[in-house]
């Protein structure tokens, strides 16, 4: 479904991503793990066209998307939950969800979908008219995921969904991510919390200073002594 | 007492016009953080176009109401085109430039538009033909003309319409999302360029209406009129809290009232030492006070994005 070949991202003269190649199959949950600064977020931003790639190709369902304007990706079926959540703080929860459905025109289906998001995250329903800026970090993360689902994506890109959240909240968020993936969504998950990410995903790639150094099934990566030492703190 | 009421009426009329113009400043600032100093010139162009159309049609035998409608339509169309063009030509290439560059460009655009207007319409003052009905009403000894009533009503209607557009429609949601975080808005599928163009076009349409109001109410049109009017409306936007729609309306009306009451009473207060021609002082005195004591404006508040 997603095929990335030789992707490079540079900030000025500094190369953050140095020609990485990976793929995500339909219906799969794949994770990209690595330390802070390894280039994971830059990779995801380049996929979502928030950054211009310095080279390489990104093919999605057979189509080259690395030159599309960013606002066209969502109608191709790609949604990003950005690092730091990026909710619209002065808009209500409902309005944030409606922004997620901005590319759609089918009003009734949109309403049905926001009900679905509310059933995934009942906490959001209780506060549906509240401004997003007044929510806790975990609630904002729920909103950001819900908002991404509102576009009915085929490919969901998640950037550090556990960042800055309390363990209990992280658990809740990951349960939802798991259930969304189980329902057939293709997911690319970028995470610093390697253990968590490998436990929920089928395959993983390990990134180090802008390069992919290791790839395998997640269960095998979890058992890999190198991974255990470097990322699982053993 | 009648003087007081009269000044309140005059202030409301002036304030409605300031508010319409201030909305243009505040919308553009809200969306892209730019003070479009050429906005006052758009008001002037609206006034000039409206005046030209009225002069052309004044002897055509058409009813006054129709003439004014055609003048309004002409002014709105021309101003929308000018607003769209200056964003495309002058500001869009500077989207990623440091903030100072578009600001200086805005001042440049303002000078270019003034001089263009001078070339087209000349450097003389133009008088608005006295075709409007001049019915007057008495309120506790003060007079209000039908024109003044119309100005306040139309301004109120347009502002209400704008607020509905921004808070109740899909397009308005996209505008607010863009103003809060353009990158994320793009992720949602919002075409930022379209939204910015649209913002300029709407602001310019409001300016065109304000231009017609100014020329009809004060009967004088001049290529330089946009400068002072623009600065005052900018002051009104800052007073309300720039970037805030309700703030622009409140700031505009307040500034109109302050100016009008100030001009009405400054003679008495200073024993005749200062006269009503000091009217312009008030706006900028207010601006200085706001910048010192409440830089975020009356309703400018911030809800931060919690980490």
Can you tell me about this structure?
The complex is a heterodimer of chains A (234) and B (307). Helices cover 38% and strands 27% of the residues of chain A. Chain A is of the alpha/beta class. In chain A, the strands form 2 sheets. A 6-stranded mixed beta sheet of chain A has the order 6-7-8-3-9-10, sandwiched between helices. In chain A, strands 2-1-4-5 form a 4-stranded antiparallel beta sheet, with helices on one face. In chain A, strand 4 and strand 5 (63-64) form a beta hairpin. In chain A, helix 3 (93-100) packs parallel to helix 6. The N and C termini of chain A lie far apart (35 Å). Helix content of chain B is 73%, strand content 4%. With 307 residues, chain B is mainly alpha-helical. In chain B, the strands form 2 sheets. In chain B, strands 1-4 form a two-stranded antiparallel sheet. A two-stranded antiparallel sheet of chain B has the order 2-3. Residues 302-307 of chain B have low confidence and may be disordered. Chain B has 11 helices and 4 strands, in the order H-H-H-H-E-E-E-H-H-H-H-E-H-H-H. In chain B, helix 2 (39-57) packs antiparallel against helix 3, helix 2 runs parallel beside helix 4 and helix 5 (146-168) packs antiparallel against helix 8. Classes of the chains: A alpha/beta (234), B mainly alpha (307). The A-B interface holds A 48, 50, 69-75, 79-80, 82, 84, 86-91, 95, 98-100, 102-103, 131, 133-137, 140, 147, 151, 164 and B 170, 173-174, 176-177, 180-181, 183-192, 303-307.
């Amino acid at each position: 479904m997603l095929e990335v070949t030789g992707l490079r991202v540079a900030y000025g003269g500094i190369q953050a991503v140095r020609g990485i190649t990976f793929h995500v199959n339909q219906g799969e949950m794949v994770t990209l793990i690595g330390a802070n600064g390894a280039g994971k977020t830059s990779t995801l931003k380049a996929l979502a066209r928030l950054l211009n790639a310095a080279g390489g190709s990104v093919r999605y369902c057979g189509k080259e998307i690395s030159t599309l304007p960013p606002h066209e990706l969502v109608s191709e079926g790609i949604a990003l939950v950005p690092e730091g959540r990026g909710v619209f703080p002065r808009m209500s929860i409902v309005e944030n969800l409606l922004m997620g459905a901005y590319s759609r025109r089918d009003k009734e289906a949109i309403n049905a979908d926001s009900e679905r998001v509310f059933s995934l995250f009942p906490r959001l329903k209780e506060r549906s008219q509240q401004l997003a800026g007044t929510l806790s970090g975990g609630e904002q993360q729920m909103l950001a995921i819900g908002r991404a689902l509102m576009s009915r994506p085929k490919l969901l890109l998640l950037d550090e969904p556990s960042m800055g959240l309390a363990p209990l909240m992280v658990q809740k968020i990951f349960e939802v991510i798991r259930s969304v993936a189980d329902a057939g969504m293709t997911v690319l998950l970028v995470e610093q919390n390697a253990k968590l990410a490998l436990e929920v995903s089928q395959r993983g790639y390990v990134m180090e200073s802008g390069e992919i150094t290791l790839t395998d099934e997640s269960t095998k990566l979890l058992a890999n002594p190198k991974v255990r030492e470097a990322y699982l703190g053993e | 007492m009648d003087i007081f009421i009269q000044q309140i009426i005059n202030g409301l009329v002036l304030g409605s016009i300031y508010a319409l113009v201030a909305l243009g400043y505040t919308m553009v600032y809200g969306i892209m953080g730019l003070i479009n100093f050429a906005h006052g010139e758009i008001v002037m162009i609206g006034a000039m176009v409206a005046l030209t159309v009225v002069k052309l049609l004044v002897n055509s035998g058409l009813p006054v109401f129709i003439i004014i409608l055609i003048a309004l339509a002409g002014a709105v169309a021309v101003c929308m085109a000018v607003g769209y063009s200056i964003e495309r030509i002058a500001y869009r290439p500077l989207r990623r430039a440091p903030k100072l560059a578009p600001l200086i460009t805005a001042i440049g655009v303002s000078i270019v538009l003034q001089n263009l207007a001078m070339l087209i319409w000349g450097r003389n003052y133009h008088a608005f033909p006295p075709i409007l009905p001049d019915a007057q009403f008495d309120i506790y000894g003060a007079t209000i003309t039908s024109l003044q009533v119309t100005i306040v009503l139309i301004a109120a209607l347009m502002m209400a319409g704008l607020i509905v557009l921004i808070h109740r429609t899909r397009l308005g949601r996209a505008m607010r999302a863009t103003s809060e975080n353009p990158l994320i808005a793009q992720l949602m599928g919002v075409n930022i360029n379209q939204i910015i163009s649209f913002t300029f076009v709407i602001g310019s349409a409001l300016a065109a209406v304000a231009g017609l109001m100014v020329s009809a109410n004060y009967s004088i049109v001049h290529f330089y009129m946009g400068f002072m009017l623009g600065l005052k409306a900018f002051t009104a936007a800052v007073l309300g809290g720039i970037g805030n729609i309700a703030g622009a309306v409140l700031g505009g009306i307040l500034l109109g009232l302050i100016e009008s009451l100030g001009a009405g009473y400054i003679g008495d207060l200073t024993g005749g030492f200062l006269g009503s021609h000091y009217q312009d002082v008030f706006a900028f005195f207010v601006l200085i006070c706001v910048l010192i004591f409440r830089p975020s404006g009356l309703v400018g508040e911030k809800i931060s994005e919690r980490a």
